[in-house]
Amino acid sequence: MKEVKEGELLWKPSLERKEDAKINHYMQWLQEHKNLHFQDYHSLWNWSVQEIESFWESIWEYFDLQAKKDYQTVLSSHHMPGAKWFPEATVNYTEHIFRNRCHSDQPAIIHTSERRKVSEVSWHKLYKDTIAIQQTLKRLGIQKGDRVVAYIPNIYEAVVAFLATASLGAVWSSASPDFGTQSVIDRFQQIEPTLFLTVDGYQYGGKIFDRTDVAAEIQSSLPTLKATIAISYLDDQATFSSLQHQHVVHWEKAISQAVKGDIEYTHVAFNDPLWVLFSSGTTGKPKPIVHSQGGILLEHFKALTFHADLGESDRFFWFTTTGWMMWNFLVGGLLTGSTIILYDGNPAYPSKERLWQLAEETKMTVFGTSASYITACMKDAIKPSQQYDLSHLKNISSTGSPLPPEGFLWCYENVKKDLWIASASGGTDVCTAFILGVPTLPVYAGELQCRGLGAKIEAFDDNGVPLIEEVGELVLTEPFPSMPIYFWNDPDGERLRESYFDMFSGIWRHGDYLKITERNTCVIYGRSDATINRGGVRIGTSEIYRAVDRIPDIEDSLIVDIPSPDSDSFVPLFVVMKDGYSLTDNLKRKINQHIRAHCSPRHVPTAIYEVPDLPRTLNGKKLEIPVKKILQGKPMEQIVNKGSLHNASALDAFFQFKEKMKM
Q1: Which residues are CB-neighbours of 637 under 8 A, at least 6 positions away?
Q2: CATH of the domain at 131
Q3: Measured at the alpha carbon of residue 364, what is the angle toward residues 360 and 370, in degrees to the nearest 5?
Q4: CATH code for the domain of 555
Q5: Is 522 among the domain residues?
Q6: Which of 172, 276, 287, 306 would bridge with 23, disulfide CB 3.0–4.6 Å?
Q7: Residue ending a domain, choose from 242, 269, 296
Q8: Strands (E), 242-394
Q9: pLDDT per position as a tens digit, 369-417
Q10: Is the whole-model pTM more than 0.85?
Q11: Considering 229, 247, 269, which residue would you say is the last residue of a domain?
């Protein structure tokens, strides 16, 4: 693959694509209905953040939000935290999903897994099954405000259960069955659920994982439960004998007992909770982040229609589990009338081509994945365009970590030449991406196309001065509808303020390291608390990872900065070698030369060490801060909650390293 520089132009949208873009239709609507004319995306963005009340009111009107009680006020205050959107209005999320069922001949959902063949679900069936589960929830006494928790993979039943829950104004929260038992309990106990949904197990990488005993342990740890719904996923004949059987309902029975009728929508206050998402919980218990029904409706309508360009003809996929916010975002694709694609399983089983095969099988138009998956395909020299029919594919979206310029180029050389690539950044905190893509702008290597509409994002220096073409803290200086309404069990808001508003008063600090370019594109350089400080110059870790990723012998890498009060900081680089390779002195020199040439002398690590694996969260993000804390000699309770990790055993090598080095 040829060399590519950050900021190199790789793709421009055709005139036809620009004209067909959903955001172009919105700009035409603004001109016709509001007498507002914008020359380009950036002038539209400027208006959307300078006149945020007018902008978000236009989103309400454009998407014709249904409110049993209308709003009088768009925004109660610009003060953060505490700003409330459309405070008088009442809405229901699920009602807006099923507005699409009467005028779409496309399936609502396509789902498949290592257990199930590809299946299409019509809007009619999705509606009928949601009726059945809503009726079951009502019989079990579930009502507005009750918490429904689900220990469930990314399968069809999860979507049905969520839509039924939201239709009643109840509050949803889910965890993937690959989470550790205590990790699930630590999440669900905090919100005192009334109902528990569980599967009997799951399959991953060809292996069967029975979870009936784990489900029973979770159930017994939730004293507020009134009922359990059991879903037979591994075994149609599963008895769930280990569950406490009082008020246990089997999914198939719930579906079969449905009576004729329609969904009864419970309208709730715009700022009432829709779901509780949890932070990764790498230290301490995960933070229970609560998003509102109305805030999510507004933001997901906007982001998925204008920034993902979704409509009824689209088939929208994101590789995710129910324990990651991207599952909630994926389900939001139904708001646009598009078909969403669910996949449960290992994306690299039986080979890394599995998701590209799925793209062909489902005629996928939008392929959502992680930057790490793209770079893994690149390192293995996979060429999807030579193996699969990807003629329907129009967009690849990437998140989870910064997509390096080489990842962009690999997509154009090996997936499709006429392809809109949208690298995105946001997070669980807001359940969206607020730096992302738009189909009417060009794509530059390593850059995120734009700041999202209505998101007043800046890069601040330590004194709160906005920066251009320099790296700073990613902040939001105005309220945003999908910000958390609160953390559960945080009555005075102290944990919320500590999480986002501790650095700049009244301004949301997101925790990422950002550069805004003169072209109004953006580059994310990693977490700001993981940056490296060399002689007062802050360096994002993603720059170093990009350089190391170019060395074919290396599978993965992690770098941390260990400050010292008496001398220069210690900056070790840890590498995982590919099978059959080892870290030699010659390779160490090559790595340092490569980093020096592609970055700068300041980026060169103090030393390089080989480790067998790198610790990652359950969502696949590598953990720089816990490794840093290990090397600083912090006690275990301050380092990491092992139940929040995909591979907790990977920490062992770093404890051994710390002991060996006597740091």
Answers
A1: none
A2: 3.40.50.980
A3: 100
A4: 3.30.300.30
A5: no
A6: 306
A7: 269
A8: 248-250, 268-269, 273-278, 288-292, 315-318, 339-344, 366-370
A9: 999 899 999 989 999 999 999 999 999 999 988 899 999 999 999 999 9
A10: yes
A11: 269
